[in-house]
Amino acid sequence: MPTLSKPQDPAPATKKHGRSWHRTAGKPVRWWMTALILVLGFHRWIPETRWLMVHMVTLGLITTSIMVWSQHFTEALLHHRLPDHERPRQILRIYGVTAGTVLLMVGMLADWWWLTLVSATIIGGLLTWHGLSLLSQLRTALPARFGITVRWYAVAAFFLPVGAIFGAILALDLADPWHSRLLLTHQAVNVLGFVGLTVSATLLTLWPTMVRTRMEETATALSRIALPAMAAGSLVAAGGALGGWVPVVVLGLFGYAVGVGLVGRIMIRTGMRKLPEGYMGWSVASGIAWLFVTVVIALILVAVQGIQTSVMGALTIPFVAGFLLQTLLGAMSYILPSTMGGGPATVRASLAAINRGGVYRVTVLNLCIALFALPAGMLPSWVRAMVSIVGAVAFAAFIPLMISSAKVSVAGRRRLMAQRAAGQAPATDTAGGSSSAAASTGAPDRKPNPLRQIVAGVLTVLLAVGAGIAVAPQSAGIGLSSGTENTVQATGNTTEITMHANQDMRFDPGDIEVPVGDRLVITLINDDPTNVHDLVFANGATSGRVGPGDSAVVDAGIITEPLEGWCSVIGHRSMGMTVTVIPVDEQGNPVGTAGHEEHGAGGAPPAIDSQDPAADVDFNAAPGEAFEARDPALDPAPNETVHELTLDVQEVAREVAPGVTLDAWTFNGDYTGPTLRGKVGDVFEVTLTNSGSMGHSVDFHAGDVSPDETMRTIAPGESLVYRFEAVRSGIWLYHCATAPMSTHVAAGMFGAVIIDPPDLPEVDREYLLVQNETYVTVPPAEQPDLPDGVNAVVDPAAIAAGTPSLTMFNGHATQYMHDKLPARTDERVRIWVLAAGPSKGTSFHVVGGQFDTVYKEGAYLLSPSSPGNPSGTGGAQALDLAPAQGGFVEMSFPEAGTYTFVNHSFAEAERGARGQIEVTE
User: Fold this and answer.
1) Whole-angstrom Cα distance, residue 159 to residue 908?
2) Which SUPFAM superfamilies would you find in this protein's record (predicted)?
3) 140: burial class by Cβ within 10 Å (0-12, 13-18, 19+)?
């Protein structure tokens, strides 16, 4: 039964501004390819990388490609060109889906569910329009042998709007079991239904063309069984997942696997006549094989484990990299040269250019995917890293080869146009000979040896594995030493431990005994309802951040000597979140503990190598150009009696001294939170929202309330309302009350509440100075050269040692040495002062000035009319405040000049606790 036997030029395309429809419509595909490569290259610095890459592939790259090529094949199969007036609508649909996908990812990153819903609606609506357009073309065309393919294109297009609905609901982040059910439903409809059906329907006609042979005689009959089985299987699996019926899901996946198996049977029987040549055929064949294998594995996992998010997570790599990307890139490698045109010789030369190293690339990719998809613990972490790099490079090779192929096509088209303009017949090549196009473009004259490429691919992956082992040989049990003369041999056994991160800042268990030479694999479960935790070992193994209620697997490698682990979230290690792995012999006696100090989870953690980036600060230097000094001037208390405020926790970078930028934890984005002011009897209603990445809270010292509810730690994304009545006057501290509090305060989570004393007299100027100290370090991995742009972090070890890096007023060490506080002679000035800590107080003094009024902790210590100062001649030189204490001083300046205010504990002043008041006539 004959079919297409060589690459075909596309149906005539409308020209617009000198560009063909195919090139215009194909732009989003190239955009998404470029974006995907960037994400692959910077995945370690991009949050939520997995779902970002999945949506870039499925919605961005795959969906736009499907829309372009389903339209192209519809025209080719029906021999019916889309009317010119329909072209702009088709391009609108493709670009609309691209825009909708971008909005979807923005909505998910910003956690704006309304935007996620709007973008899902846009994408679903445009795919529905696309499907209706295909059906319209099918109705207006003459009957065609492969009209069944177009029908299934349309059916598949109608799957995606359904999947988009479940995706929008999934963005609400419902708790399990609904999250897991919706995720499986979403994937069954979108990946298995929309993508799987479209790809399978295309390959029924494209595959014989790619391998250059006749179509399998039973292909049409089998396709009438395979495609309905796949459609029904995906719908049954989705329905079973939504209802939580495991047997129904298994039945649906079984039916889908049968359909994919029939498609594979057609491809195998077709390929038996003539094996695929190069990258295109083997990449597509590998993609379908991965689809079948992944569906079967999913069937088994669901049958054994039930409907769980972890099941879908374990299949992400095989689905995305194995099936989706390999199928897409293989098909594009074949279709792009054909659609670029230029005549048969040029097409063949273009195919040869994009096919360079084809078998080698497919071998490397599939071995890397297979290794990377292994369950956690079976592959050492450094080996996984090296394998992922090699696989990413093999994928990325498509970009330069595609560009090279395009250059060949452009050169061929120009040559063909020149020949036609000159009235010459196009150059032709004999079967098996070298075309002039191929010769002129440097395409190879002889076919590469596939066996050599397979061997080279295997060797490449083996080198990657070897490099990973060389970086961390202890993780693979090779060349291991316990630190003594005896070499420890890997046993080949694996010790599996389940560890819990508890709310009381402990790992349970804190000490782990492992038979020496065993591999240790830990399943970390975060039982803390509010805080994010992780587990990091000294050998580099890490779980990554684990949210409340989530879990992760850590492969700690082969245990040959004591190994320390800890939570790397700032402050958690100093709170006792440490673990010690102890190797033991057959009798249970510790091995290789010489020189290692034993301690449990509550023991002192090992010293952290750090470097204080504030050590070389020039305290005479001005703040950075982008820094805006905080206005210390205070407004009078507002007249309303109910004060409403939102405190939004934000984790942002803020400058705290010239050249020192801290990864700060803040209320409303500022290091030192907003100031609240009122009077006795006023009511404050504060809404705390947590937009950070870990648990936070707030404690208002001005509130006389039970801390159980109002001061509880809330998880990221949550909020609470803190309501209190101001019953006593004074200046009160508020701060984050989440452990370790010292770290949270040093990171910037503090502020002031001023409750005016009754009959507080008016003054000419009123200022607020909140003093705090911070302790900073540069993360060890970033120390070597301290490059510009590296942010400091709070150092809990320095907090414990009591050695501040900076002491400052209102969140910056030098701002008021350059943005001076203004005053005039004979004006009365009131300065409120609060010592926020976390550990240091203040002795507030104005050089050259004297205080005639001192108010501390709710009472006047000195005033011109106080009983202890009958003549009004008494004065004060300093306001002494312990941490969390506050008050104010009043003074006037008889002479113009520059008056420096300091913490008279001069060590703190020299760390930045100083500023100036500029007094003019």
Assistant:
1) 66
2) Cupredoxins
3) exposed
Q: Are 570 and 791 spatial neighbours (Cβ–Cβ below 8 Å)?
A: no
Residue 426 confidence (pLDDT) = 59
**Angle value at C-alpha 123, between 120 and 124, nearest 5 degrees:** 80
CB 122 within 8 A of CB 140: no
Of the pLDDT bands very low, low, confident and very high (cuts 50, 70, 90), residue 682 is very high
Q: Do the Cβ atoms of 339 and 72 come closer than 8 Å?
A: yes
State the pTM of this model.
0.53
Beta bridge partners of 578: 566
Residues 6+ apart with CB under 8 A from 221: none
* Cβ-proximal residues to 526 (8 Å cutoff; 6+ apart), any chain: 500, 501, 532, 533, 546, 547, 548, 549, 550, 551
- What gap in Å lies between CA 851 and CA 198, rounded to an integer? 82
Burial class (CB within 10 angstroms; exposed 0-12, middle 13-18, buried 19+) of 304: exposed
Question: What is residue 774's predicted lDDT score, i.e. its pLDDT?
Answer: 94
Integer Cα distance of 574 and 799 in angstroms? 10
Neighbours of 597 (CB within 10 A): 10
Burial class (CB in 10 A: 0-12, 13-18, 19+), 762: exposed
Mean pLDDT (whole number) for 772-778? 91
Instruction: Dump pLDDT digits (tens) for 14-47.
Output: 344 334 545 555 555 555 555 554 454 444 434 4
Q: How far apart are CA 896 and CA 919, in angstroms?
A: 5
Question: Is residue 911 very low, low, confident or very high in pLDDT (cuts 50, 70, 90)?
Answer: very high
Q: Which residues make Cβ contacts (< 8 Å) with residue 415, sequence separation at least 6? A: 342, 346, 427, 437, 440
Tokens of 902: 């300091």
Please give the structure tokens belonging to residue 482. Answer: 């316990």
Q: How far is CA 237 from CA 323, 477, 510, 557, 748, in A?
A: 19, 42, 42, 38, 50
Q: What is the mean pLDDT of the chain?
A: 80
